Fold these 3 entries.
Entry 1:
Amino acid sequence: MLTLQKQKQFAELAVVIGVNMQKGQEVIIDSDVACQDFARLIAEQAYAHGAKLVTMLWSDEKISRLSYDYASTETLCDVPQYIIQRNKYFIEHNCCLIKIAAGNPNIFKGVAQDKLGKVSAARSTALKEFHDATMSNLLRWCIVSVPTASWAKTVFPTLSEQKAIDKLWDAIGKTMRLDSDNPTAAWQQHLTTLSARAQRLNELNFDKLHLYASNGTDITVGLARNHTWLAAQEEGADGVSFTANMPTEEVFTAPHCKDINGTVHNALPLVYNGTVIDGFYLTFKDGKVVDFEAKEGYETLKKLLDTDEGSRSLGEIALLGKNSPIAQSGILFYNTLFDENASCHLALGASYPTTFKDGNSLTQQQRNELGGNYSIKHVDFMVGTKDLNIDGIDANGNKTPVFRQGEWVL
Amino acid sequence: MLTLQKQKQFAELAVVIGVNMQKGQEVIIDSDVACQDFARLIAEQAYAHGAKLVTMLWSDEKISRLSYDYASTETLCDVPQYIIQRNKYFIEHNCCLIKIAAGNPNIFKGVAQDKLGKVSAARSTALKEFHDATMSNLLRWCIVSVPTASWAKTVFPTLSEQKAIDKLWDAIGKTMRLDSDNPTAAWQQHLTTLSARAQRLNELNFDKLHLYASNGTDITVGLARNHTWLAAQEEGADGVSFTANMPTEEVFTAPHCKDINGTVHNALPLVYNGTVIDGFYLTFKDGKVVDFEAKEGYETLKKLLDTDEGSRSLGEIALLGKNSPIAQSGILFYNTLFDENASCHLALGASYPTTFKDGNSLTQQQRNELGGNYSIKHVDFMVGTKDLNIDGIDANGNKTPVFRQGEWVL
């Protein structure tokens, strides 16, 4: 269990390092009602650091589940105009967005995949403008997580509810570097290390990466032209830096969506739309998934791949070593924010405009011509096994070992 | 403590007797995050009874308090357009609105009255269309209450938090007739009794009521022309009946806003904008407050009276006997929903259009000509002491005893 003092430090990190809120800014906190105590700590920190206004965007996954059980697909697909208006307001007012991601990984278990897929696609389409704004950092955003009972019990099923919650708090506290005397300074140091790594990859300017491991993964991922490697810290459209994911261990860039060939197997389960997808592989040809299989969650994976044209290609490749604190914890969090930081990963769907040089000044069409992928989805899945090897291949075909046995060798 | 089974019956009452939701309707549940468990029970009952969709309107009074502590008056007065759009949607979609009222009566204690008053007035003005829609039953609505820790501790300050919550649940359960074997049938019987009482008052067709008691109350309240007495059950604009307040014990109608003369003293504290107003009197001349005093909350009362022209006159007079179950409980709930049902009361501010014959087909101007009051406020305050006497006076000046010693004698 984290002390209230540590929880306050955590909330402050989200405001100061996460969205890097500037005095006089409006802050949106997107939280399940189950996380109300921590949401209030963030609100208080935001105000204490000079927020103009904090607006809560409450949700309740249990009510969402009820709506899937009772309301029609048609009703759920219909996104009221006032939601779109609200999102416009957030963009126009240059709000910061802090999301607390703490969902029960199995909340939608048993809901028809067809219904989940249709509703998810319809909402993504209706909320496209806001999604695009986030993807291109028009507003600065940050995701953090705190334990809820249902999530903690999924992670630690053999413990009592309270013990599971306490243990998950401890684990999250470590990944958030709250065991440091000065968490803010520890984060600044960490961000510097990650930036240096991205810098080195940019200097090497690889054309492709070849990933291979004993589980059958053998895939060559071409990188988009004019791609740039980013680490934790990104730049908002207003030039202010921020850290979108906390914790974060990765450096990442944009694949070339027409130059991906081979097969990749997942290394950890993927939780998508409240459903677990596991034991799956994807085979790519010229950038598109041409074959796939899944031992668990096949239908969900299929719906995801069938969302639109771009959901069959990749929008992100992210690298991190098996010795990262999250990987070392050995905990499967069933939460992308953590699990993606335990393992190298790829993302089905859209690439981030910021992973191109001057990406936000390019049109979507221009980024697409460079190999950038577009989709209404962006879904990470983990591929970094403990024996993953990666070679960087430059424009002349020269190979440089980047990863050996799951860890950096650059 | 109410069993889960009883809580479910309670939730069902709100859906079936309260808003009288019709199959295929949309339901809005307006709840503090502290009441999430009960809000979910209502959502489930609404869906089980055929709701098309349940939309949650979450609030958090602790975040609201933070916003008053940190955000500027100007910022808080600014109601974003998307909120107004959202309310329009609720009206246009003929939604039912169920509100869970469970606020900490002291949540805004210490906030400058000037700030509270300005913000409250600005928001009421911005949300006028929705307020008017509710007042004229354009959408069917219902208010219920469940215990929260802070509210329960205010009601029972000497008990432990858990015991206070349990005791408040028990008290609410009794007022909701949940101790009956068939709460729905008990409510239907109760509604019939109240309707008969309203019917009798309509037959007598009084011109004025004279209220007097030993605390100094001595006031003559003229009734609006074409007024009609209503009881718990009202009719929505779509002709479907509903019960706005649960519990409810009152019969009520519209005073004539230019024909109120004399002085009235409060019988119970009034909680307004999170502030307690007590030990107050109001002196009226020709329908307007011309003098007032308060031992506690004077500034808050002053702000309320100064809101607009109509906030200095009355919009409602409601009668109920001292033997009503809530009055008998002897509990001061610090919550208008209950306390107004323990005592005869008056309301500063707007009259309900429905308290006029064919009121919803009249314009505001027409109702005003009949003596109806208009304001952006409608705030009940309790005047029913145990020795309150009321005489009905007809157009010829004939007197009929209506109340003696705080109880009906009609």
Entry 2:
Amino acid sequence: MHKEFEIEPLWKVTRHLSQVARGAAVPDTVIRGVRPLCVFTEKILPESEVWISGGRIAAVVPAGSCTSDEAQFFEGAGAILAPGLVDAHLHIESSMVTACAYAEAALKNGTTTIFCDSHEIANVCDKEGIEWMLEDARMAALNIFLTIPSTVPATTPEFETAGGNLTPSKIGELFDAWPEAVALGEKMDFVAVASGDERAHAIIAESLRRGRPVCGHIYGRENVAAYAASGVTDTHEAVTAEIAEDLLRAGVWIFLRGGPPTTPWHSLPQAIRAVTDFGCSPKRVCLCTDDRDADDLFLFGMDWVAKEARRFGIPAPVAWSMGSLHAATRYAMDGEFGSLGAGRRADLVLTNDDGDVHATWLSGKLVIDGGHPTEVLERALQTPYRYPASAYQTVTLPNSPTLLPELPKTPCTANVIKIVTPGIETFHDRLAINPSGGWESLLTEHNLCHVAVIERHGIHGEVAHGLLQDFGITEGAVASTVGHDAHNLIVAGKNESDMKLAVETLRTSQGGVCVVRNGEILAHVPLPIAGLISDERATEVANKTSQLKLAWNEVGCQMPYMGFNLLPLSVIPNFRITDKGLVLVRNLKILPLFEDQTAG
Amino acid sequence: MHKEFEIEPLWKVTRHLSQVARGAAVPDTVIRGVRPLCVFTEKILPESEVWISGGRIAAVVPAGSCTSDEAQFFEGAGAILAPGLVDAHLHIESSMVTACAYAEAALKNGTTTIFCDSHEIANVCDKEGIEWMLEDARMAALNIFLTIPSTVPATTPEFETAGGNLTPSKIGELFDAWPEAVALGEKMDFVAVASGDERAHAIIAESLRRGRPVCGHIYGRENVAAYAASGVTDTHEAVTAEIAEDLLRAGVWIFLRGGPPTTPWHSLPQAIRAVTDFGCSPKRVCLCTDDRDADDLFLFGMDWVAKEARRFGIPAPVAWSMGSLHAATRYAMDGEFGSLGAGRRADLVLTNDDGDVHATWLSGKLVIDGGHPTEVLERALQTPYRYPASAYQTVTLPNSPTLLPELPKTPCTANVIKIVTPGIETFHDRLAINPSGGWESLLTEHNLCHVAVIERHGIHGEVAHGLLQDFGITEGAVASTVGHDAHNLIVAGKNESDMKLAVETLRTSQGGVCVVRNGEILAHVPLPIAGLISDERATEVANKTSQLKLAWNEVGCQMPYMGFNLLPLSVIPNFRITDKGLVLVRNLKILPLFEDQTAG
């Protein structure tokens, strides 16, 4: 927490706070003329005023109670005053900005506390990267807690090459060194966990033995029982109401993930039916954003997710409670965050009846007013954490990577990755191909493009080749050093020269995303920190990302940029590509690109 | 926890448990043919079976899933299988039994986890007494956690003389030495807390600085804001729906206290209206028993409280959830207790649709079957903790205490304690009296009896005298060394000689409760441990208590035995008697028994 917003721990101030609450001492700030949203009773209260002292809530009292002229008053004009939103699970790196920069967007959207999992930077820079980000978080104008990355690498060196390898002992060291580390992050290798994998359970043990909860990530229903029995107590991957109810029954908190409707991760509308249709209590249901690119970060924040929950049938106070108190409760931090309860941090949001955020307070200080950062926030944003030089040198590519596979000599079967937007899943298709017409006719005939993943951590520089079906790109190439989770460089395109330009562009910027066409760079978002993150302000990165998306569409890509980044994530169904080759996820098996070639 | 029921911590067994859950290893026990009560979704599920391994729940699976003949099967015959109840707040000493003995009654009533506050023994034996009881708890067949007594003595030496004085540093030492100490116990001096009293807040700080919650006890609405701002986050004293909603809004968990309807503490029916009538969410509402004498312990357990919640309009699965998961969540222990979630302790209860308990499992072992202890429980009950010799020598009375006050010589005003059953409150009445006819006519005319409180910790041996109006006793005397919270000896009666016999009876037994009449002891429950607790089995103590109550009624007492024990509790409204005199609670002021005496 940036020093501007640091406050005393509750145990040091209960005496003074009690005196403010009973009217024997004057509050610092009084927010009056507001209707408090009570996340405990799940009701919106009549017009009241909220007394703040030392950055904490002293009391919520009837309108007109404070008559002192020493307090600073803020007029709410009848609006709703709610607790700041608490994002139960996200990855800052997905937003391509630092933690310090992330704060601005979060606060604009009424989010004041986040639980982030820095497993992207961990996959590139190992434990050191996590510690940089924790230092970053300590200077941010936001309450930031870490769920320690649990699955780095996401699979094993046989299936992908990552820059990080978080062993159980490193995870234990992080827990012991960083009080912000409050849980183990999403244990993504759910098949390994359910199968009793030794390393996976040793990592879980590091968290449980310290009394820290274990966060989850699981697809499908068949592994739920074994996964939950492994000590995992939340997930943000429930994509149907049936799965959500299975998980709730097994004692797993559900984090409803709202994502921009054009992306593959807006699972909230389906999962929420466990409450609205099946009648499950919402008390163990939270909200989260998970991944947002820099552009979407401003448009689809937690405030939007809460509105989506309302749109799909949850009463407003319950939806806001899911988005605040419930997450704080899940992490056993509800004495400090997520409500207007006495003694809690004065992290507050002023909204209209539709849930639009007009103002945000952090530690009792107004940080967003009318949608804009106030002076105190501006000041904090201008003294961010600076990552060390080594964070800027992480893209080590082979000199002249071979970007296209060898063209088969005879008709054969190609194992292609079939894209079906807007889903996260990809599919495995066995395509009978006849290569006699060369690459161009082959790509056109089957609506294919090239894809290659280049190891970029300077370990062996290997390249894997594949073919994407229905990716949609009609010309040029796109490339990214954000290639979940190992973050090798992924490039896709229609021709070798554009693919090469895209790769070299990212080599020069030491990371980023770009779109090229006919030898021209149409858009480029440089991400020099770990090849994942910009060091610019969030608004700047959002602008560049917005331009990137235009170019992305211009060359015809049907799968959005963030879906593309997930193509190398070999824990998501069904058929993926890493630097080690084409991975059939369910069987954890590598397939060749071409097979059944007749003898030449 | 008795060694018979100790199990491995979850972090050591997740691998095996996951393998059981996915069917790759055989569960120890399968409870089949049951309808699981899911406290997460708040629904009763279709017929299923529950797999148990190593004392933990591995999975809840569809009926007929386990086909191995190596597992031990238990046939549920269509009954409901629910998590063991979790009592959010109670005092074991009120039940006049040891922790080891308490377990039997708790398990019969479906309670498997309790949060107890040993402030009675602390008031007699200070920190040492708490540590004895913690040792006792470690040998009990029950999950017992301590909320460290926070208010010992309940007021100050000016207002009562206690045997204990729990300073902030002693409380800190208890937190650091005993992992079972999970919270600070009810901070009863709510007026002092709300007024910013230094010692009260130093004690609160000891808990909060260790990340431990602070439990509360508050009457009335006017101090709620200041009390909540002091960091207190629960209370079991909400006696109306309005107070309950005030407290919920302020971020305070509500523990609905169910008490036998004939006693003064059945506040559940009123407070529950915050949910049923006012529409507050029940998610921050728990159930508790608080105080039960040995007799009522068997009849009015947590199962009965949960049934009361249903009777007053809460759906069955929600009521059971209030009585299990919610308390576990309040103490951030829901990863281990209070549900049928995977990995949780297999503390289970088999009930019919009315909520009657038929069987109880502790750590996966059947302990109650058809209402009776099983062999494994019997074994555990026969090897209880033994309190040390010094625990048996705590009643040190003056040699010949003066039991009656001096009869005034002229008409005057008497400050009498007016009893209004069945309330907890007593009232202050100023009675114009004419003593010319002597005590007998005076008592008869105004429906009075004598009451005296004798300091019994061997400190100064002072005696305070008072008069009770409408207590109802018609002959003889009653006495008790359980006199909340300082536990001085309280005796009430119609004549001096019976009062004396009652006192001497308790001196001889080193504590207890008795009823005497015309020189005969009608009933006597010896409580030799700290003058509060019997070392007999709960069923024995219950029998003796039941006989005591008959005698209690026989001599005409209208206020029940436990209400009588509260007469010296100077933090309950409105007019009380301690060894220091008659205390007007709201003003914390001592009044003389007689005033306005005309000059003789």
Entry 3:
Amino acid sequence: MNHLVIMAGGIGSRFWPMSTPQCPKQFVDVLGCGRTFIQLTVDRFKGVVPAENVWVVTSEAYRDIVAEQLPDMPKGNILLEPCRRNTAPCIAYVSWRIKLKDPKANIVVSPSDHLVLNVPEFQRVISSALQYASETDAIVTLGMKPTRPETGYGYIQTDLSAACERNKEIFRVDAFKEKPDLKTAQEYVKKNNMLWNAGIFVWNINTIINALRVYAPQINGIFEGMQNVLGTKDEQAAIRERFPQCENISIDYAILEKADEIYCFPASFGWSDLGTWGSLRENTVQDAGGNAVIGSNVKLYETKNCVVHVAQERRVVVQGLDGYIVAEKDNTLLICKLSEEQRIKEFSAE
Amino acid sequence: MNHLVIMAGGIGSRFWPMSTPQCPKQFVDVLGCGRTFIQLTVDRFKGVVPAENVWVVTSEAYRDIVAEQLPDMPKGNILLEPCRRNTAPCIAYVSWRIKLKDPKANIVVSPSDHLVLNVPEFQRVISSALQYASETDAIVTLGMKPTRPETGYGYIQTDLSAACERNKEIFRVDAFKEKPDLKTAQEYVKKNNMLWNAGIFVWNINTIINALRVYAPQINGIFEGMQNVLGTKDEQAAIRERFPQCENISIDYAILEKADEIYCFPASFGWSDLGTWGSLRENTVQDAGGNAVIGSNVKLYETKNCVVHVAQERRVVVQGLDGYIVAEKDNTLLICKLSEEQRIKEFSAE
């Protein structure tokens, strides 16, 4: 059976005040389309993963939001981290829960707050990768074909001469590269084997469990040792006690950069991590002046290259701005140059 | 007895969205001091005019706001205009009401939405003018000593060689001058006999009634003909019928520019009509960057020469603005260059 794991523990601090610790970006209708990011994420797996196989790993604080926003998934599939330990413990936890329920699971791991424009192509790629993962012990990453010299993403160096036997769209990975400087990114984008790491992974349950055992034994040991309580009423108490003991490390560092059988599926389906207000502006429908406006009662005069994000019912008039963020949520308003958005954490400090 | 007439029928469209047709500027805590403009207006007459002699002329729509904001004045002293007919009908109406109650009244007429910083000096000037008006048949205007070549005010040309016998601070008026162009205003400000017309008038009841009879007989006739219903339960019905028939004209045009016994009391008590966002900024305490901020949770970064007006509890961060209005009330937000504020009526159109 196919399973979907959504990692939804982020706090979205770069999108303040639209995103707040109380309700971070993945639970917000960022695009003003009537669906939050986590809802859109689940939506795009419809037909690929049944609702009962959707798993969400998030913070304890967000349990009720997840349950409310994703009413079709089993409440028991919402796994709660008592603290933030990066992605390796998160994946280890949910993998052991899935293994106990479905020892033949094939799994997609996905962030909760990314944008995908071409959902049919996304589904084709995911289905193909799941099929491949079900037949092999491959760890498959999705590599986005870059459209610009982006310095905000990690890159996957792929050996395009080494297509897999069973799926000619999937290639062996040579190396993972950290976020590059601009010059390096410009070199990457000229090549065709340097792909953006979208943080989407596909594997079967035995592959990931084996990889955890080999490459992340400290973390794996904690959850393997909890098999008798996982899925029982004692699970959360045990997790509260043991989860904080996990090493704080990403799945990329813990496994992907160490394991051998790592593969990449190069794809193009209009993906963006929408990690900044600037990328939100670039990936949203713009008016003739390059403004991205979320809000149904916003009037702009002599305004260009701005991103305006307000509640649907808010009445807003903006005159004479170029290159600004105007973002408002609940009791808070931010007006800030897009070029200064890396300071939003500073601005949002109480 | 001294009486205070507050004209409070304005709609304050230039201060949208802080000021709205539902709750215009005079009923707003513009300065963030906990008192609305009309409350501040009444406050500054304390000790000069007793509460039972405070009269407010306003639109029917604002009756409840006035009653709520000025709980100490008699409800029967709130006079309601069924439509806007400028200041002459307003003053005729309230003058006949006062005459029937107090045939020896001395009256100050004041706008409801102006700023006075030096209240003791204001009270000294008003008391002196009331004393003078009680002893003479003078129509006394208050002339503000100009501090800049303001093109937004009318000017009073005063004969400073002709001080009155009974009060050496009061002088005969030579002429009223309409709002000048900048060059003319620059000439005015160099002289010492060109004074801003603050729209504050002082007279006794017989003086104004006589002037109305002589110079505004159409308007006066309507109210003089209603003496038997004024102050009775039939008043409002009669006003609804007859008030709209009044000529639409200001007291300046109808009487001041025609009558002979017009005097001016030159004064300086930190007055401003606060008619624009720009003048609000100039007349409010500014930070080192020239920002005027109303709101207790507003943080500014690299921001100067702005006026920010939001509800006290609103959390606002502004970065990188120079010379802008950021104003918010209820469901509406305006961001606009101060230099474009004359377009606010356009912006506020639904």
